[in-house]
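> call design_seq(struct)
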């Protein structure tokens, strides 16, 4: 009986990954080191750097000459049709270029990006780091049982769950069957009673009809 009880209460089984020891051999090197995860063992890490650079180019307005364009009001004559000084260019025939505002040069921005390499700060360029799993013991905690050595016996829990459902179902079925049987018996008794009653009435009142 105790063995059956134990079978039901012991829902754990030995972890097959570590054979119950809770530890698995570590895969680090003989020096208890692993490949640096930051630089993948290369010793250098690289990052993309972007910078925008400003530089000047000559004004691209087609009529711009050293920052000046022909006055549009007097068409470069510097005079009004009446012979007066042009109010727009004050008689010079030229006005400041609208693109470069009289400077003759315009500013352009260039985006540049490149890879910058630097010594990996995690491993200091060695490409290897101290094993974080075993701390020099060559054994790491079993990932399957988290070092406990046992795991939940899922198959057994399933069997127990099915047994529990069956145990619950049996009384329910029993009540249903009992109910049907009892109902049947009562119906038979009632029917028999009715038939007897009918027979008695025929005996009592049969003579009147005749
Ligand atoms: Zn394990
Ligand atoms: Zn003008
Ligand atoms: Zn210009
Ligand atoms: Zn590194
Ligand atoms: Zn290790």
């Amino acid at each position: 009986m105790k063995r059956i009880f134990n079978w039901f209460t012991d829902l754990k089984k030995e972890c097959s990954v570590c054979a119950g020891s809770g530890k698995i051999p570590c895969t680090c090197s003989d020096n208890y080191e692993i490949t640096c995860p930051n630089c993948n063992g290369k010793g250098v890490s690289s990052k993309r750097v972007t910078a925008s650079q400003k530089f000047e180019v000559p004004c691209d307005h087609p009529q711009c000459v050293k920052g000046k364009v022909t006055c549009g009001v007097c068409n470069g004559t510097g005079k009004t049709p009446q012979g007066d000084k042009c109010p727009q260019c004050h008689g010079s025939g030229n006005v400041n270029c609208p693109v470069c505002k009289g400077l003759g040069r315009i500013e352009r921005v260039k985006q540049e990006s490149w890879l910058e390499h630097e010594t990996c700060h995690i491993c200091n360029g060695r490409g290897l780091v101290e094993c974080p799993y075993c701390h020099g013991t060559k054994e790491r905690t079993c990932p399957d049982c988290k070092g406990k050595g046992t795991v939940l016996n899922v198959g057994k829990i399933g069997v127990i769950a099915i047994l529990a459902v069956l145990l619950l179902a049996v009384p329910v079925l029993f009540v249903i069957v009992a109910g049907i049987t009892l109902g049947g018996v009562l119906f038979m008794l009632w029917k028999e009673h009715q038939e007897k009653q009918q027979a008695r009435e025929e005996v009592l009142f049969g003579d009147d009809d005749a």
